[in-house]
Write a structure and sequence with these properties.
- With 548 residues, the chain is α+β, with helices and mostly antiparallel strands.
- Among the domains are: 3-78; 85-198, OB fold (Dihydrolipoamide Acetyltransferase, E2P).
- Helix content is 58%, strand content 11%.
- Strands 1-2-3-5-4 form a 5-stranded mixed barrel. A two-stranded antiparallel ribbon has the order 6-7.
- A hairpin with a 6-residue loop joins strand 1 and strand 2.
């Protein structure tokens, strides 16, 4: 691959991240002698500083050692309380908890239940929970009272506390909870008390979420649940999807369109940035306007872990392009991952965290260079000056360039996500490479249209907003039709039960290590050598499917 197509790979935060990952893995398996470990970490940090001006890799080794030891001690302090093996054998017990709601998954079901994630403020001694531990709650709401559960609410309740087994399926709901650092379920409540209402900001976000739901349903056609898909896509409310819709989007590997993530934040950030550019806001001022708006959107949609991760990515990317002379997307990505793990170290075992960062890293190291090389090799009319091109030739070149970009991004994203999808969800979607090429564009148009519609509705132009919603529903109808059609194509979805996790966690490091080597060596060999990274992934998938 040509040298100019290589992205900057100098990213000191990347070495810090690697050390943090190793340290957190150690902390999960072994309890650190915190005092001793921190002393050794301080010595290694000093040694690293002393060697930093010398050539060689000793300073890097000492730096990563210091980072690893520090993360080991930090993880020992921060990791949530796990149920002991003996606790799992004990009968279920009643617990009295005082907790703060951090995430609302369901505000009120048809059975009068509310569920979500909460942080423990106070608990009775027999529960063995401590301040800061997180639980999944499902509480019975009063029938006659106007009792609503919102983000930031403090609740006192009596109910049944059940530890989650250590042996759970990764693709189950319990597996999802354990991946986010939650080891207990709190259910079957018998008493409920609102200890403290949410803050004014949380109440404002809740009201705006309800208003957004109303705006997105303006002019909705009857009987097709398009407004449900629309609301799920813009606000991350997966509960609005029908069971059939959820199943087919999940099986085709396209469920990520309904979790507020990188696509949503990226599209909205682009819309905001282009608008600020249109009104001539200076580049160094735009982050101070755009990032607060993005943060507000994340809070209104419920501040899910995927949304927070995407916001941090956007924060570091936007700041990098605004203030850093030599931008390094890789450094910005590593810095955002470091911040996520500092505040929520248990996120390292979240499949969402792993998919988010591996996919973006694959796009940066493989997708974008692949696109640049392909656009150079396949450039139409390259022997004809652009000044002499006809309008049809410009259009043809633009369409080809867009298709190459979509294919490169979709392929690189699939290569990074396929091993994890096979290991955790038990299926592969080879057709998702082409399917996502179509759906990403439709989803981007729907999200952009939704942002415009919400903006107009907020300024009192509800009739115009309802009219614009129809454009989004056309895109959504096309998305749903494509997904339905794809499920009927043989070979589109491959079930791979029994795919070993160790294979996924072996081939992905090999894949990224090879990509880094190709970039760092600045090889002038034929671009054919860049076929090796996909070969590594495909070979690993075949081994996993063969259950070797």
């Amino acid at each position: 691959m040509p040298r100019r197509n290589q992205i900057p790979t100098r990213a000191p935060a990347l070495f810090l991240l690697m050390g943090m990952v190793l340290g957190l893995i150690l902390a999960r398996e072994f309890t650190a002698p915190i005092g001793f470990v921190l002393c050794v970490a301080a010595l290694m940090a000093g040694l690293s500083y002393g060697l930093s001006k010398q050539s060689g890799g000793l300073w890097l080794l000492s730096f990563m050692t210091a980072a690893t030891l520090s993360a080991w001690a930090y993880g020992t302090l921060r990791f949530p309380t796990k149920p002991e093996s003996v606790q799992l054998k004990l009968p279920i017990r009643e617990a009295h908890l005082h907790f703060e709601v951090e995430r609302v998954m369901q505000a009120r079901s048809q059975f009068g239940n509310a569920s979500g994630v909460a942080r423990i403020i106070e608990a009775n001694a027999t529960s063995r929970l401590i301040l800061g531990d997180k639980v999944f709650y499902r509480i019975k709401l009063p029938e006659t009272e106007a009792f609503t559960v919102q983000h930031g609410s403090e609740i006192k309740a009596t109910g049944v506390l059940t530890p989650i087994s250590h042996e759970v399926e990764p693709d189950s709901f319990e597996g999802y909870l354990k991946g986010t650092g939650i080891h207990y379920r709190f259910e079957r409540t018998s008493s409920l008390e609102l200890a403290r209402p949410p803050s004014r900001f949380d109440q404002f976000c809740h009201r705006m979420n309800l208003r957004f739901q109303e705006y997105l349903s303006l002019g909705a056609p009857d009987g097709k649940n398009l407004d449900g898909i629309y609301t799920a896509m813009l606000l991350g409310r997966k509960a609005e999807l029908s069971d059939e819709q959820s199943d087919r989007f999940r099986m085709t590997g396209t469920m990520h369109f309904f979790a507020i993530s990188g696509l949503h934040i990226g599209v909205i950030a682009t819309v905001i940035a282009q608008f600020l550019l249109l009104i001539r806001i200076p580049r160094k001022v735009s982050p101070f306007i755009g990032l607060p708006l993005l943060f507000l959107y994340v809070q209104i949609t419920g501040a899910s872990p995927s949304a927070v991760r995407a916001f941090l990515m956007a924060l570091f990317f936007w700041a990098s392009f605004a203030f850093v002379r030599q931008q390094s997307p890789l450094a910005a990505l590593a810095a955002s991952a470091v911040f996520v793990l500092i505040f929520q170290p248990a996120q390292l075992w979240s499949i969402g965290f792993q998919l988010s960062y591996t996919v973006v890293l694959s796009i940066l190291l493989f997708g974008l260079p692949l696109y640049e090389t392909a656009s150079e090799k396949l450039a139409p009319f390259r022997y004809l000056p652009k000044a002499n091109w006809a309008p049809s030739q410009h259009l043809y070149a633009w369409i080809q360039d867009a298709l190459l970009l979509l294919f490169a991004i979709s392929l690189s994203a699939w290569l990074a996500s396929a091993p994890l999808s096979a290991a955790f969800f038990g299926y592969l979607s080879p057709g998702a490479i082409l399917l996502n090429m179509l759906l990403v564009n439709l989803a981007a148009v729907a999200i952009t249209t939704g942002v415009v519609s919400l903006s107009l509705a907020l300024f009192g132009l509800s009739s115009v907003s309802g009219f614009i919603n129809h454009a989004a529903w056309i895109c959504i109808q096309m998305m749903d039709t494509l997904v339905i059609g794809s499920t009927k194509i043989p070979g589109m979805i491959l079930h791979c039960d029994g795919f070993a996790e160790w294979i996924a966690y072996s081939i992905l490091p090999a894949y990224f290590a090879l990509l880094f080597c190709l970039h760092r060596t600045r090889s002038k060999r034929s671009a054919v050598i860049w076929l090796l990274p996909p070969v590594v992934i495909i070979a690993g998938l075949l081994l996993g499917l063969a259950k070797i």
